[in-house]
Amino acid sequence: VQLVESGGGLVQAGGSLTLSCAATGFTFRIFAMGWYRQTPGKERELVAALAGDGGIIYYDDPVNGRFTISRDNAKNTLYLRMNRLKPEDTAKYFCNTYVSTNYRPWGRGTQVTVSS
What we know:
The chain is mainly beta.
C-alpha cells in the first residue's frame, strides 16, 4: 500500500498548481479520498474530499471556489487543482482516504510554498 504525492513547488500568490496522488496496493475506486494539509506545529486538516464515483463530499471554506479535487480511477490517481493561491495555502499536502478508519499509511506529502 502506497500513496505518493507530487506536484508541489514554489509559486507566487495568485498562481496555480496541480497536485497528484498515485495510489497503489488497494482498490482505489471504492474509497472516498481526500487531500489534507499540514503546517509545522499544527494538526493535519482536511482540505477537500470526494467519493469513489467522483461526487464531491467536502471543500474547506478557505479553499472553496479556488481548489478542485478530482480523480481518475483508471489511473488510481487523485488530483487537486489549486488556483489563486494565497500565502496561507503554504503547507505540506497529503492524500489519504476520507474516512479515518480506512486510512492507509501516510505518504511523504508534497510541499506547496506560496510567496507573497
